[in-house]
Prior knowledge:
The chain is built from 5 helices and no strands. By secondary structure, it is mainly α. Helix 2 packs across helix 4, helix 3 (48-69) runs antiparallel to helix 4 (79-106) and helix 3 (48-69) runs parallel beside helix 5 (111-128). The longest helix is centred in the last third of the chain and has 28 residues, at 79-106.
Amino acid sequence: xxxxxxxxxxxxxxxxxxxxxxxxxxxxxxxxxxxxxxxxxxxxxxxxxxxxxxxxxxxxxxxxxxxxxxxxxxxxxxxxxxxxxxxxxxxxxxxxxxxxxxxxxxxxxxxxxxxxxxxxxxxxxxxxx
Length: 129
C-alpha cells in the first residue's frame, strides 16, 4: 500500500485547524440558539459521534422504507413515506448540528470526530441522492 501523505507534510497535518465562517443571520439568531438549547437535552455520557450516527440512522430507516414500498423506484409510495423523509432529513440535520455543540460542551472536539462527521455526511449524500 502506498504512502498518501509525504513525511514532510505530516507535521503540517498535525497543525491543521478547521475554521469555518458562518455569516448567516438565520443561523446566528434562530438555528444556533435552537441547536444549543437542544444539545443540553443530551446526557453528558453520550458521545458526539453517537449523536452523528443516530442522526444518520433516520436517513437509513427512510431509505429502507422507500425500498420496501417501491423496490424498483418507479411506483408511488404511500404519502406517509414521503412525510417520513421530510421528518427524517430534518432530524438528520438537527443531529448533525448538535453533535458539534455536544463535542464543544464536553471538550471532545478533535480531528477524528470532525473526520467521522464529514464521512457520515458523505454517506448521507450518497443515500439521499
